[in-house]
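Let us practice reading a record.
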Amino acid sequence: MNPTTDFRQDEGAGTVTRRLVFATLAQAVVVLLAGLNLSLRFSAQPVGSFDLVRWREIFSLLVIVPVSIGIMFQVVWILEQGRRDAKWPITIVGVCACLLGISMGVHEPINALPTLQRFPALEFWDELFSHAIFYLAFVGISLSLFWSQMRNPLPTAMSLWTTAVFGCIAIMGGVGIFLTLLFGGSIGVDLAVIALVLFAAEWMRKGKTMRQLPLAMVIEWPYLLAFLGLVTQRLLSGQW
């Protein structure tokens, strides 16, 4: 079996595309919910009598992170199903998913603490450790999923209608990323990491048409839209 061209030996290209539509739409909804979770005042309210426990962190840790990871595994399985060498992208996504869970598990509880109640050690775990691990996980997951799509392009270009559907999904994801970082204070490093992923993704794509790479659309386009939106907002507000 040729692992590059025959990985869909039990499914047609249309079936793969439909499954990717549903999976990426679900992920875009999760990203949008993550952005709203950081934007709405309700989510900042304490849970019952626990003053330092907020609904925001509870929702992030119990809903956003596990659901997002589950969808990412579903996406890589859709692309890699039937390949003899599928273990490599799946393993990379798995390791990066673990890093994401570690990062969020450290960052979210500490993030709920008032600044005055933080010790220097907590600043290390939150500002340095968790952020560094998160950036590593973000880059690793993004590029491993992108690599999986490049290994398994659609055999023919998508129709204009299907391309438009993925474009709408990309816009939804871009709005979610924008909202996630909009109120995040200094985001210079975040923007640099997004730019790095975009540069690496374009290098990996090597000019191949997006209409055979639906996952590339819903990775690159949201990142680019969020990047441009955030840069514009910061330029207008003068706050970086």
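A brief commentary: The mean pLDDT is 90.
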